């Protein structure tokens, strides 16, 4: 009897307390806006964007001569160290810290141009709550921060393509540290941090201006100020490892899905739009470049199709979340043609932008930003604007203003940084080092263990004989 009464009591207690407990759990869940699906998606997207930096290292590394491949690849990898730290200390705060929530408009006063330092050292950047501004309301603030960090890492790495095989690693180290602070962070704030370019309606979904134009223009200024490689246009500087180039573009393409689709900041229809646009634009870019090269030069090359894929990726970046798949194909194809002729024009000018950073990233970013104002449609993204094709030619104005502002700011900022560094240190290696290659001189090692390793073995053997 007592046993039966105990069971009845437990059932009654469960019936009474269960709904109350469930209500408390439901209330707690309702108060926490963090969405596990969005969080998982953005964690993967952040990792994909980081994966692009090693991809860029292989892409650039394959295009240089074998005696400079390690130095070239290190110019990408070092950014994962520099920006991985400075973004936490001050970069993120300068780019995104504002006092005005998204729902109330844009930054005012100085906050139209640069963020504050309230988030320096990740102060008040929580891992269990969204950011207080409203950038991404369903993921942790620290996740939004680290996702943006990946963009800040790869952007200055793009610049090194213009000055490979001649710049000292020390000068490059200080250049990218200063550039990421005083050029990248303000530009990111203008476009994504509730700054003045976003306020005038300039559309840049994933970095046409912030990433590609800024790095392309800075590359031109840096190459011009440092000067051409020794024997440029006299001795051929051919790629030493084309399979590296193809591996690199494959890694970049794969990572770019996180770059563009992740910029939706949640998993859903907008991320799908950006993913599809990225895929078809890149395909169109590579196909177009191969066909143009085949027709004009008789043979489609591996480096050519890789460059076409890259042009398609660059061109769609600002438009990925605003255009239809057909618009994305047109953007990829048009951008590839423009970049193809930009590369040819650069060769005719005999300007040593060594790996065509401006011809692909600068030109591609410019074309993509302008074409965003042509093909954008609110039917794809209601938060955007219609472009020329959909009855709003006025959208070209903020797009062009954004392009011009980025050109001027990146060029002036780079010029000032290089002038300061030139007064403090040597910017390029000695002539003999350039002849012998930078790997051994700048890093004390070489990629394939040929000359340097054999020299060490010979020296060790000689020393041992003397000791004997």
TrEMBL record:
It is a multi-pass membrane protein. InterPro entries: Ammonium/urea_transptr, Ammonium_transpt, Ammonium_transpt_CS, NH4_transpt_AmtB-like_dom. Gene3D superfamilies: Ammonium transporter AmtB like domains (1.10.3430.10). Residues 40-448 form the Ammonium transporter AmtB-like domain. Pfam families: Ammonium_transp. SUPFAM superfamilies: Ammonium transporter. The chain crosses the membrane at residues 42-63, 75-95, 144-164, 171-193, 205-226, 238-259, 271-292, 301-320, 326-343, 355-376, 396-422. One of its GO terms (cellular component) is plasma membrane. Residues 1-26 form the signal peptide. PROSITE patterns: AMMONIUM_TRANSP. The keyword Transmembrane applies. Keywords: Ammonia transport, Membrane, Signal, Transmembrane, Transmembrane helix, Transport. It is found in: Cell membrane; Membrane. Belongs to the ammonia transporter channel (TC 1.A.11.2) family. This is Ammonium transporter. It comes from Planktothrix tepida PCC 9214.
């Amino acid at each position: 009897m007592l046993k039966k009464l105990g069971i009845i009591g437990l059932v009654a207690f469960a019936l009474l307390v269960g709904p109350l407990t469930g209500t408390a759990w439901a209330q707690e869940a309702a108060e926490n806006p963090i969405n596990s699906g969005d969080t998982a998606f953005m964690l993967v997207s952040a990792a994909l964007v980081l994966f692009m930096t090693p991809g860029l290292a292989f892409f650039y590394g394959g295009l240089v001569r074998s005696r400079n491949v390690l130095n070239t690849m290190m110019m990408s990898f070092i950014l994962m160290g520099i920006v991985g730290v400075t973004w936490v200390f001050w970069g993120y705060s300068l780019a995104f810290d504002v006092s005005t929530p998204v729902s109330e408009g844009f930054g005012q006063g100085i906050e139209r141009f640069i963020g504050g330092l309230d988030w320096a050292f990740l102060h008040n950047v929580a891992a269990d709550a969204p950011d207080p501004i409203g950038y991404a309301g369903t993921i942790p603030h620290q996740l939004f921060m680290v996702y943006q960090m990946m963009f800040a890492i790869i952007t200055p790495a793009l610049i090194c393509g213009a000055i490979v095989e001649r710049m000292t690693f020390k000068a490059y180290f200080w250049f990218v540290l200063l550039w990421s602070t005083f050029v990248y962070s303000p530009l990111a704030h203008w476009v994504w941090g509730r700054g003045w370019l976003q306020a005038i309606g300039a559309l840049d979904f994933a970095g046409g201006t912030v990433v590609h134009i800024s790095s392309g223009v800075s590359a031109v200024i840096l190459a011009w100020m440092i000067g051409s490689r020794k024997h440029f246009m006299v001795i051929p500087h051919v790629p030493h490892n084309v399979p590296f180039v193809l591996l690199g573009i494959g890694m970049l393409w794969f990572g770019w899905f996180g770059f563009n689709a992740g910029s939706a900041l949640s998993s859903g229809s907008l991320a799908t739009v950006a993913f599809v646009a990225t895929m078809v634009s890149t395909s169109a870019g590579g196909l177009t470049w191969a066909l143009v090269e085949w027709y004009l030069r008789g043979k489609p090359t591996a480096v050519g199709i890789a460059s076409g894929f890259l042009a398609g990726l660059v061109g769609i970046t600002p438009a990925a979340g605003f255009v239809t798949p057909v618009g994305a194909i047109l953007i990829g194809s048009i951008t590839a043609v423009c970049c193809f002729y930009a590369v040819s024009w650069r060769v005719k000018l005999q300007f040593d932008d060594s790996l065509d950073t401006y011809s692909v990233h600068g030109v591609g970013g410019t074309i993509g930003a302008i074409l965003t104002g042509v093909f954008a449609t609110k039917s794809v993204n209601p938060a955007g604007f219609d472009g020329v094709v959909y009855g709003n030619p006025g959208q070209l104005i903020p797009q062009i203003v954004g392009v011009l502002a980025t050109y001027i700011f990146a060029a002036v900022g780079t010029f000032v940084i290089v002038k300061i560094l030139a007064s403090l240190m040597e910017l390029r290696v000695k002539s003999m080092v350039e002849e012998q290659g930078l790997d051994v001189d700048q890093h004390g090692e070489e990629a394939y263990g040929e000359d340097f390793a054999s020299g060490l073995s010979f020296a060790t053997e000689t020393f041992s004989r003397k000791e004997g």
